[in-house]
Every structure is written in C-alpha cells, then in structure tokens.
Amino acid sequence: MIFMKIALIGLLFFVTTQLSAQHGVVFPQPVNLEETSDKFVFNGLLTVDRQQVPAELFSYLQELFGRNFIHLEAVSGKDASIRLQPIQTLVYTEGYQLNVTGSGIEILYSNTESLRNAFQTLNQLIQNPKELSGVRIADQPAFSYRGVHLDCSRHFFTIAELKKFIDQMAKLKFNRFHWHLTDDQGWRIEIKKYPKLTEVGAWRDSTLIGHFSKQPVEWDRTRYGGFYTQQQAKELVTYAGIRGIEIIPEIEMPGHARAALAAYPELSCTEKPLPVAGTWGVFDDVFCSQEKTRSFLKDVLDEVIDIFPSSVIHIGGDECPKVNWEKCPKCKGIMSENHLSNTHELQSFFIRDIEKHVNSKGGTIIGWDEILEGGLAPNAQVMSWQGVEGGIAAAKQHHEVVMTPTSYCYFDYYQSGHPSEPLAIGGYLPLEKVYQFDPLKGLEDEYKRYILGAQANLWTEYLPTIQSVEYSAFPRLVAMAEVLWNRSQAAYPDFVEALSNYYLPGLRNDGVRFSTSFLDPKLEIQASTSGVGYQLIKPVNEVTFSVNNEIVTEINIPRTEQVQETRYLIHSNIGDQELRICDYTFTSHLALGKKVQFDTPPHEKYNHNGNLGLTDGVVGKKPWKGNEWLGFNNDTIRFTLDLETLTTFGSIRIETLNDPGSWIYRPERYEITYSTNGKKFKKAAKGKVSGDFITLRKKMKARYIRVSIYNKEVIPAGQTGAGFTPWTFINEIILSK
Ligand code: TNX
User: Fold this and answer.
1) On the chain, which terminus has fewer CB atoms closer than 10 Å, C or N?
2) Closest by alpha carbon to 667, among 620, 623, 730, 614?
C-alpha cells in the first residue's frame, strides 16, 4: 500500500487511513489516485451499457474480468453498475477518469484507448470479487509510444505464444509491439511474390550451442525454423489491436540479410550462395545497393504494408558492414552516378529511396540509429539503441524518436549476477536500473516533444523458448511500464514491495515465468582494517537473509597472505517462504580492501564498487555477466594500488576479458611499476598480454603498485564495432606472498 500512498501526496480530498487492501495496486501506477471511505458492493457482477463498448473490446474485457472471477455483462439502458461517460475535454487521448463510489463505478473517457485503459485499471483494482473500496483516479500516460520489441528471427515463437505475450503487454498498458521478423538467422513472414523467402530463408540447418564467444564452436546440427503466413500475421494484428497494441513490423535492410540472401543470392554483391546463418553476430554479406535489390525490397514492403495497418514500418538499418559495398562495381557505379562520397552516404541513399516508396504508400519509416550516418532520410523516425546520443541528434534535427538505449532497454542482458542465471548475451540490466530509466534525460526542453517514448528490446539469440523470453521480460517490463506511464514514480523499494505483493501473484496465476532476482541482497562494500565487509541491503522490508540457517545482515571477508576462496549461500526469505538462494564466492588475498586510484576511471556503465572495484574479493566470471568486471572505453588505462603500509609480496595477477563480439578486447601490453613512497616508481615488469591474465611473479616490497594497460586504438576492420575504440575489461588485482 505504500506504493499507493506515494500517489496520495498533496490530496485535496479526505483519505482513509485504513491499510487493509480493499483494492489492488495498479501497474503502471495511476498519475492521481485518491482513496475515499466509500464502498461499492457488487457481488461478482458488473454491468455496462452495450451501446458504448465496441463488441470486440467487450468480449476481450469479459474474458479479462472473467479470469479475475468477475462476470461482466452488457445491458441496455442507463442503470449499469459501470456508468460510462464520453467526454471530449480530456486533454490526453489515452487518459481517463475512474471513480468508485457507494453507488457504482463511473468512467470518463474520450475514445476506445482511454476506455480500455480505464478497464485495465479497474480490473487490477478489484482484489475481492464482491466489493471495492472508493477511489478517484485521474490518469494519463507520460509517453504515447510504449513499446516492446521481440526478435522472432533468432528464435521462433508460435502465434499462440505471441498472443499470450501480448495479453501481458496489454495489462501493463503497452501500446506498440515491434515485431522483428527478418534477420540473418531466419525470414519469418510469408511474401507471396517471393516464396523462397520462407521456403528457404525460414530454415537453418544448424544452430550454435552456447555463447558465441566460446571456442571451439559447437553446433546442434538440427534443422530449425518456422514462419508466419500472412493470414496468421493479420490474425495477430487484430488480436493485438483489440488489446490496444499496434504491431510495427520490421524488415531488416541493408544488413542482417543472410536469410533473404540464402533464398535469393542474386541480391547480394557477390551473388555467392550462402546458407541461412546459424550463429550470431554481424555478417559482411548484406543486400547489394543495386536497383534490383531495392525493387525487391519495395515489393516485399508492399505486401507488408497490406498486412499491417500500422503507418510506421521498421526498416532496420543497423549493423551493416560496408566491406562488400566497397569492392562491388554495382555499388561503386551507384556512388559515382549519384555523387556519393562514401558508403555511409550510399546507405543513406538506399534508405531514402526506400523511404520515398513507403511514404508514397502513406507510411512512415523508422530505423535503428545507424540511419543517421550519411544523412537522415527526410521523414524518418529514429530508434536510438547504441545510446541516447543518436536519439538526441535526431530530435535536434526535428525527427521523432523512440529511445531504446542498450543500458536501460536491452532485456536480453543479465538481470542479476547470480551464477544460476541462464546464459545471456552479456551486459547487466537489473530491475532497479530499468526503473531508473528516464527517456528524456539529456534533452533540452525544446527537443523533448520529439521523444515519442521508449521500448524494451528482447533479442533472442539466447532466448530459445517463450518461457526464457518471459523470464527475461518479467518483472523488468513492469518497471518499463512505470517509466513510460508516470513521470513521478514511487521510490524503488515501494515499487518492489507492491510488485512482490500484487503483480507477481497475477503473473503466477497467468502461468507467466518471471525472475525473482530482484530479491537478492544488494551487497554494499566497506573497507575494514582486516579486509572487506559487505552489508546485505534488503530490496523489500519483509525480506530476511540467512547463511547456514542463521540470520545475517553482513558478511566479513578477511585479508589473507595466500589466495583463498570462500563460498556463501545466502538464502532470501519472506516469512517462511524461501524465494532465492544466492551463491557467492569471495576471493581473499593481500590487497583485499585496499584502495585503487584510477588515472583513467572505468566507464560509468561498468564501474562497480568505485576505488575498491579491483580489490573487493569478487573475481569476474566468464562468460561475463553481472557487474563484476570494470570496463574502460580507452586504449590506455592507468591506476595505482595503495597498500597503505610497506608490504612484501611475491605475486600479482590481474584478470582480463576477451569477447570481441561485445567489442571487448584483451589488452595488448602492460607495464607494472612499484614504489615505497608514491613518488619514485621502479619498473617491475612489462610485456605483452597473451593469455587471460597479466601475471608477475617477483619478490617485491612496496606500498604502491602502478599498472598501465594498453589496448589497440580501434577495433580492426571486419570485426563487430570496426573503427570504434575497443573496450578493456579487467578485474580483481590479486596479490599474494
Ligand atoms: C544488436 S540492436 C543488434 C541485434 C542483436 C543485439 C543483441 C540492434 C539494432 N542490433 O542484432 O540481437 O545487439 O543485444
């Protein structure tokens, strides 16, 4: 109830103080909710005027309320228990007002969207199928685009599975489903003019097993695929539409095209036959920029536009290597004919041509932020994924933007550092971080109006089943829904409390998988004279933590002369219910809890535990997940460890990470110096980094150790992220006698 009380601040009306839940908590939280002392008794039956609710919406609502044990009935005349009042004065098209009084329920609405939103709220308010306590709600969304993206190419999900997913989106008042239908690993939508797209392009012979950075590569040697017929796609469009969700289809171009090229090799620069990809990443074989390919894509889009009533069509535009274009006579010809000075301008020319076609059919294109490179197509919307910078740049050019920065919106990233987390692509995006997302951050006021909203992206390289999709989606989607609906959200602990008590039981009832990792203790580090101490911070007040059946509030790890590992199993309980077991291994050593001064600070995204980040006793795992690694986006890194007293030691070890697919490169060289006074430093060692570790065995006596690490300046051509500064990830600096 605290969650709601936040919404009550500044009320003009009398508010009851009784805390017994006479109504549920609504997600996303209404902008204004006031509790009154009224009570409406309805005994499981609610009636509405059949004239005012569109028939399709009514059947959906009947089913929705039915699952909540409420019978919703359409009646004629004015004596319905839910009185619907159309009004034109609501400023926000999706806004509504909902009042529960002693004599019934009153909904003020302006259109179908606002009516549906009011009913979604009402359904969540009803906790007890007999009665409901009084409330007055005035509500409207902060953003008009509230999206979820699902990649159905890397893995395929059935229409029935997608319907279940869309049902969940609707409850949270999301209103856009971005359907990623084509990519290197599978073409998923029937195109009548080009049957091979699904006959050939929808199937791959084998799929990579495990993480794609793993060597040697292993294959499952199993044919995998599937596609949606136009009829099925239309069926999903209707289904989603009834639930207030518009489907935005994505047809990727010019990159991520291997599935289409497997079907029609003549559309690539080399025309070489290639199989549908079975591994992940970015491929050099892309659509050739020639006229023939562009008219093929226009034909495809014509059919897509007929299936999807959405005025917005996603044309991809991301991650298109230009290596083949650079060598291709056809591409070079187009460049000289059109006075284009580089291949970025050629991509821009390509996208503009496609845009013109889509515009001529009354549609608008949206593309990933790479469509800014080489000049934005005149009417394009931009989906900003590589950060928010692309979105800000587009807004400044007066283009509409949907924010989907990886750091807040990539739900394929790990949601906890717990070792039992299923394999994910990498990254770290816990629930709390999603909740803290502000799609307008960094924007000057005059450009804010170009930000339509934001979207959570579910890429499915590592999400093979709908259950794994659900696990990644929930409860992070609940946090995203809050971000998009309400500009002044409740404090995070209140959100978490309400989520645990009110939303998760509903997901469980609906048979939706979700993660409870947000109930893990948050470990807050403190240096102590003997090592490090970790305070176990509770995410929710009712949680207790125990180790070996004893309640604990902190864990202390002592410094040791030799490297020593200790494992703790921390149980999270609410009352008698055990919700999670967290498995932590701490590594003690001589530098544990000693501070490091960074000349080059870690990037804010990968800066865990500040100046104790390299001496916190937590060694980064591989494949990397969670937030144990410190990440730097510089080619040179320098830091100094202060042991506080003169210390004798015989070994230094620093772990490094190599994951080129994530732009992370093992450093090339290192140099270590040491000092007794922090002024004069002596050389200890320098050399090439060849394996996973920088290691030095040498008897030394020092107070300070200074480490310099050098990486390549740019990611080499042909690799993911070519031309950008590589990331350097390092972890614990382990000292021992
Ligand atoms: C980047 S985001 C991609 C996708 C991957 C995703 C994995 C974007 C426009 N392209 O192809 O699936 O990263 O996180």
Assistant:
1) C
2) 730
Task: Please confirm, yes or no, whether 370 is among the known catalytic residues.
Answer: no
Q: Is the CB of 319 under 6 A from ligand 1?
A: yes
**Which atom of ligand 1 lies nearest, measured to the CA of 154?**
12
Per DSSP bridges, beta strands 728-736 and 630-632 are antiparallel
Highest mean pLDDT: which range of 317-326, 421-430, 580-589: 317-326
Question: For position 626, what pLDDT does the model report?
Answer: 63
Evaluate: CB of 425 within 6 angstroms of ligand 1.
yes
Rg of the chain's alpha carbons, rounded to an integer? 28
Q: Which is the closest atom of ligand 1 to the Cα of 280?
A: 12
Give the number of the atom of ligand 1 that is nearest the alpha carbon of residue 410: 14
Whether 615 contacts 733, CB under 8 Å? yes
Ligand 1: centre distance to CA 476 (Å): 18
User: What residue's CA is closest to ligand 1, atom 8?
Assistant: 318
pLDDT (tens digit per residue) in 636-681: 999 999 999 999 999 999 999 998 888 999 999 999 999 999 999 9
pLDDT tens track for 443-466? 999 999 999 999 999 999 999 999
First to last CA, the chain: 55
Task: Please tell me whether the overall predicted TM-score, pTM, comes out greater than 0.90 for this model.
Answer: no
Cβ distance 10 to 36 under 8 Å? no
Question: Residues 35, 113, 183, 285: which is the catalytic one?
Answer: 183
Selection from 665, 642, 653 nearest residue 725 by Cα: 665
